[in-house]
Amino acid sequence: MAHDGKIISADSHIEVPPDVWSSGIPERYAGLAPKRITLPTGGDGFIVEGGIYQGGSNLYAGIDPKEYNPIGLKWDEAAGTGGPDQRLRELDQDGIDSEWMYPGVGGVRNITKGIKDPDGYHALIRTYNRWLAEDFCSLDPDRLVGVGCIPDRTLAEALDELEFCAKAGLKLVEIAAFPSGKTYPVAEDDRFWARAQELRMPVTVHVSLKAGGQVFNYPVTPPEHLRPPDYVTRLARYGIRGAQNATQMVLSGLFDRFPDLKIYFAEQQVGWIPIYLEQMDHNYERHRHWAERIYDLKPLNRLPSEYVKEHIYWGFFDDPVGIRMRYEIGVDRIIWGGDFPHVESDWPNSYKTLERNFRDVPAEERRKMTFGNAAAFLGLEVSEPVRA
Prior knowledge:
13 strands, alpha/beta, eight-stranded parallel sheet, three-stranded antiparallel sheet
């Protein structure tokens, strides 16, 4: 498939009110569908299992900062909350040719996190992915690129939904935890990574994976009174957002086992990445010897930064400093996304953001970061550019 695109926003969000996309849930789980109510503020809320979900406080696009109010928002009045025909008009208004749409603040992850019944939880995620593929992106699948949502509780559910997303025609999927549902990588995750590669399904992380508790499954865990500071945390300490997850992946040997695997971490900003890479290697050389003795963690075949530079793509929305440091990161590993319709978005004037970030950047490098790298991550065949 050839893609003759101009500008791809590789970080946008689906903010269609959750009672719209959940209307197709199987009848036996109908009680789990969020129900819209009017809050005392006059804004919209949604009754979900676990309480009342307000959301919407991040719906900012197109609003004058002097007029913005995160309280009392009505979803149907905000930019980015309508159907696919509205979404295409909003893309045209912004001069963006296509966008990758992640679940939003009113998206499936927030709506389902309180659901106790595992079958009902998975059913609502399946309902969302089906709606995304069949009812939203189908209007123009080249421009409206929906990001499939992978359950974050068990490996079996993750694999099942990966298969569904591929069959439904979604072009990439987002994980919110390691495939097994844990906060750290384990051997069984390899079944997911292997199947994703077999399906040629790109995998992305929005900001970072869920955190809390254990961060790594070390071969040996010493008694607590003999336990040193955590090794993964040590190597990731000079990075933010996706740094710890990237470090977990590297130290688990993921990229040695899957040398063709690439992961895209969306909405990162990138100015912090050079010092993260530098200090990760510094800390690795200084601490790997005791980590091998205490944790029985074998040395890597290469420096950790080399794995990150080869296998990780990083997303940004507005980071001129990071773009000036692009050679330290890798020009072919940086991807722009406008974050529409969230508070970081400059819709409908994203071109001003692009001009500010890419001032004095050569046209070919700019094209890579606004189109070519995103297209390459999806495995698209890229034709000659239509716009420098």
